[in-house]
Amino acid sequence: MNNEDRYQRGVEKLREVSGEAGERVIDMLKDIAPDFARYLIEFPYGDIYSRPGLDLKTREIAVVAALTALGNAVPQLKVHIHGALNVGCSREEIVEIIMQTAIYAGFPAALNGLFSAKEVFKERDAS
Amino acid sequence: MNNEDRYQRGVEKLREVSGEAGERVIDMLKDIAPDFARYLIEFPYGDIYSRPGLDLKTREIAVVAALTALGNAVPQLKVHIHGALNVGCSREEIVEIIMQTAIYAGFPAALNGLFSAKEVFKERDAS
Amino acid sequence: MNNEDRYQRGVEKLREVSGEAGERVIDMLKDIAPDFARYLIEFPYGDIYSRPGLDLKTREIAVVAALTALGNAVPQLKVHIHGALNVGCSREEIVEIIMQTAIYAGFPAALNGLFSAKEVFKERDAS
Amino acid sequence: MNNEDRYQRGVEKLREVSGEAGERVIDMLKDIAPDFARYLIEFPYGDIYSRPGLDLKTREIAVVAALTALGNAVPQLKVHIHGALNVGCSREEIVEIIMQTAIYAGFPAALNGLFSAKEVFKERDAS
Amino acid sequence: MNNEDRYQRGVEKLREVSGEAGERVIDMLKDIAPDFARYLIEFPYGDIYSRPGLDLKTREIAVVAALTALGNAVPQLKVHIHGALNVGCSREEIVEIIMQTAIYAGFPAALNGLFSAKEVFKERDAS
Amino acid sequence: MNNEDRYQRGVEKLREVSGEAGERVIDMLKDIAPDFARYLIEFPYGDIYSRPGLDLKTREIAVVAALTALGNAVPQLKVHIHGALNVGCSREEIVEIIMQTAIYAGFPAALNGLFSAKEVFKERDAS
Fold first, then answer.
1. F43 to chain E: nearest residue by CA?
2. Partners for F (CB, 8 Å, 3+ pairs)?
3. Does D74 touch chain B (CB under 8 A)?
4. Model confidence at E1: pLDDT above 80
């Protein structure tokens, strides 16, 4: 496979998972680190998200759990709560995943995750 | 619901998810913090894991992702890789989940997660 | 003990420690995760904070240190700086605790903790 | 104050808090980073621990909470569980502090803290 | 060496690295923790930054990498992106360093680092 | 560029930076996640490390700082202390970089980094 195909596959996967929010991140990188925009499409989306063996919904469940636990990447958590909803998670499932992380990363991480989910749900209700 | 029921429900859920490894953690707490052993059964397993709205397999996928990302709780990650396998994840799915976290928590976190999975798979092959 | 008593005990402890700020957190959870609001009252406040063996002031000292060190839960740190003051810490003691964490979690964590304390002290002077 | 006095004050405070374990850390630094051994005595112990405004027992409570929450500094956590006991904390208080952090940093961090405490208690029983 | 000399050396080093941004941090500490302002000058700048063996540019490269990886100290990261530029790093080098950390701390940490760099570059273009 | 070239470039860069230790990591992944071994060569080494704009020595300085600060990836930190030495850092420079991170990530992170460096230096003296 050449890199152009990998990039194209990544662009499509990014659109499927993250929609406009993903494209906005890519745009924000254009003037400061255009190569990093390319890597972000190629490795995460062209390589990892494009793998068989786990459907996109399950991947986004893992991502929401990981980002809630890390607790220091709120913008990315919001992008991926959108992403999880885009690929078939229900709001109830997202709330359950975040509550589950309270056990492993503590109540503040879970609270901040729930408040991010609340904002995302509002954004979607408004549009 | 009284607390005794909650405790019993937690004991059963702990056994279902974590099997002997879960009981070993409870035993290790007996002489130093027996009340914490009880809380561990009641809140995580009696409350959270017992909720409807997300099946056990999905919960364990979220937990493996969260613990891999945090990267500072290797014994618990191993318990929950066992747990994920106990409740229906395949080894391939676990490897996919851990590779997915490389994007969000970095390659070292994912490498250490994969090496934990490797040890767990060996333990299961040996028994 | 039944769960209703545990909940009531938690509500009282939450009020004693966190006052209005605690109630505001509970309110913010009502529409997105009402069960999590209940868990937050039951386990942290009904179980842990209600234990004998450590007074509330000492518990809040531990919490301010832990949240300053983690550094990714500013809203909760502010709630518990209020909490520490509510249960008998002086402002000087809070500043000492946060400075102490500089050794273990670095100067940025301590600086951000001190700036949170500064905001809390201003809020209390204003009201 | 000149730096020699600060160093001497730090040496005494290190001995009071961390005893032989503290001296062992200093020794381990001698061949690789002797200046860092000196800074460790001067800033944490000569400056911070020597301040009035918070007694040593309260400082160690904050340190045990912070290190349990961070979860990636087990050797230092053990040194400071010893330290907390050296300056007047009871074993019961240490167990309470670590259980308190479960709320803020998750159950794995608290479990690993309790297991560190268990090892320290055994070391002291053996000597 | 007496402490007064150490303080003076720290003030000069802070000015050289962090310029006005450093002085602003010191000012913000004056009313809440003036001693901590003094420690911040003495230990980081008077002791560590003043050491021979590594030039200031290399030190700031290490600091930008560490703060990007930690991901929970955005104000300090911005101060040190300014700092790195003040002591001779180019904008391109800073972007490279932050992209490098994506491997070790994940894409969200690197993205947030790049967006901090973008803000700093704008601030410098505006003044 | 096609992916085969990217892979070859990555293999060479991995060898240059991490030598045998890098190859050992790749080998350890072979039976559990061979694709991840490939990604590890392609993205970090084939893409990032192969970029112009920052020499390998400076990249490794950033990596040692980032891994010391994260504090939860000791095996990787040791690989990259070796790496830093392989591409031209002196032992003194590595010690300086780790001491520098004490300011930003705390003394325990720096102590554990220095003890990792001590082990690496011994390994190299022995061989």
1. E103
2. A, B, C, D, E
3. no
4. no
- Encoded tokens for C39: 């868990």
DSSP string, chain E: -BHHHHHHHHHHHHHHHHHHHHHHHHHHHTTT-HHHHHHHIIIIIIIITT-SSS-HHHHHHHHHHHHHHH-S-HHHHHHHHHHHHHTT--HHHHHHHHHHHHHHH-HHHHHHHHHHHHHHHHHHHH-
Which pTM was predicted?
0.98
With an 8 Å Cβ cutoff, is E54 touching chain C?
Answer: no
Cα dihedral: E56, E57, E59, E64 (round 10): 140
Q: Which residues contact F78 (CB under 8 A, 6 or more apart)?
A: F21, F116, F119, F120
pLDDT per residue over F20-68, tens digit each? 899 999 999 999 999 999 999 999 999 999 999 999 999 999 999 999 9
Residues 6+ apart with CB under 8 A from E119: E78
pLDDT bracket for residue D2 (50, 70, 90): confident
Residue D63 neighbours by CB under 8 Å, 6+ apart = C65, C100, C103, C104, D80, D83, D84
Q: How far is CA D92 from CA C58, C63, D61, in A?
A: 13, 17, 12
Contact partners, residue E81, CB within 8 Å, separation at least 6: E64, E94, E116, E117, E120
Number of H helices, E strands in chain C: 6, 0
Amino acid at F46: G
Q: What is the pLDDT of residue D49?
A: 98
SS3 call for F101? helix
For residues F114 and D40, what is the distance between their CA atoms, to the nearest angstrom? 13
In sequence order, which residues have a C-beta less than 8 Å from that of residue D52 and are 6 or more positions away?
none
Q: Is B31 on the interface with C (CB under 8 A)?
A: no
Nearest CA-CA distance, residue D24 and chain B, Å: 25
Question: Cα separation of C93 and C61, whole Å?
Answer: 9
C119 CB contacts (<8 Å, ≥6 apart)? C78
Q: With beta carbons less than 8 A apart as the criterion, state whether A92 and A76 touch.
A: no
Which residues are within 8 A (CB) of B61 and not within 5 positions of it... i.e. 6 or more apart? A58, A61, A62, A65, B84, B89, B93, B97
| Complex ipTM | 0.97
Among the listed ranges C1-10, C44-53, E77-86, which one has the minimum average pLDDT value? C1-10
* Segments in chain A below pLDDT 70: none
Task: Determine the 3-state secondary structure of F90 from DSSP.
Answer: coil
Which residues, at least 6 apart from B3, have a Cβ–Cβ distance to it below 8 Å? B42, C1, C2, C3, C6
Q: What angle do CA E68, E70, E72 make, to 5 degrees?
A: 95
Q: Give the pLDDT means over successive 10-residue stretches in chain B (127 positions).
A: 90 95 95 97 97 97 98 97 98 98 98 98 96
Contact C2/B2 with Cβ under 8 angstroms?
yes
The reply to whether A93 touches chain B by the CB within 8 Å rule is: yes
